[in-house]
Model the fold of this input.
Amino acid sequence: MISLAKIVFHRNRRNIARLWLKLHPQVRIIGITGSYGKTSTAKAIRAVLKESFETIITDTSLDTIYNLPITLLKIGPKTQVAILEYGIDRKGEMDEHLKLVKPEIAVITGITPVHSEENMLGSLDGIIEEKSKLLRALPDDGRAILNFDNPWVAKMAQEAPGPITTYGTKKSFDFYYDNVEVSKKGTSFNVYFKKNNRVARQKIQLRLLGEHFAQGAMAALAVADSLGIDINQACRALERLAPLPGRMSLEKGPDNSHLINDSLRANPASTMAGLKTLANFKHQGPRIAVLGEMGELGQYQDREHYRVGQLAGQLKNINYLITLGPATKKIVQGAISAGMNKKNIFYTKSHQETAEVLKTLLKPNTLWYLKGSLLKHMERILIILRGKTVACQRISCHNYYHCLKCKELNPNTKNTNQQ
Done:
């Protein structure tokens, strides 16, 4: 429970941050929200802006309710642009953010049923309603930059009071892309945009893995264009963007395997995007998907896990599927319904069991994908595979920090009850 002193301190910090922002009217605010892709999109936007503007960006290691005021207090006399993630998981939370700071440009990355539990946003409609508030907060000339590949985002467009820039994969959008290829070098694709009343094309080679990063790149290019930055310059900036640890980062795995580590977060959209990357990756050798539970899905939990399983079963290049945790039984059912061989599917009840299955499957040149929600601590599997003893048996844990920092990693710890 948060102490009264902390509540008062945080409230005062918010008030000071609000006043501090008013003392710096030169700062342009870019607000980003959505159910997935906020952090990677924010990083992409910063990459294309920082060569032309003095920018600040929210710290991804903090909860948004603390992050926004802390970020605003970093504004200095030379700051020109603030790139802010408006993360929400409860009704009314967006209102609190907007009392503090409203955007001039709003980016919506996509909508999926994450945070739809009854004590959070309640339903998909609740998610759309809460996130739409960012659009309604725009000034009349404020620009909305929307991922029109996502039907719920396209539906939200009517809430924008001013101009709209669309992006995605269709030629009718303002920014679109095609010819995606994913390899060890990263992700390459063609981007198309309007220039001098004509459609121009530019090829981009990202260091990031996965087609979904192309969508973040589109949003970044749309922001760059709205702020008068040359698109070709912005494309080159995106190519220098480095991957974030635990977010589709390609790493050396045990037994000379290749690991796509995407274990930091999980929701239906990002999990399915990761599975497609695993299947489409240019690679000669077996492929394994290791999937933990996706949290905070409420009434959509069974349906969304089942859908993920169906996709895993439909992607013919995925040779084995390993799942961890009770909710992933639906992933197993979905994969079987889509035609995946039962002999190649393994349901496990603990991180230790998952690691043991992997030990029998991992061989040199195996490509495997590791995914799960933050509190499912899928990194524990890697710790075990690297020869360390993990005493804690929890499938889910409330700790946000990495398991290596936890005292219960020690095998002498008494509290090892599975929860």
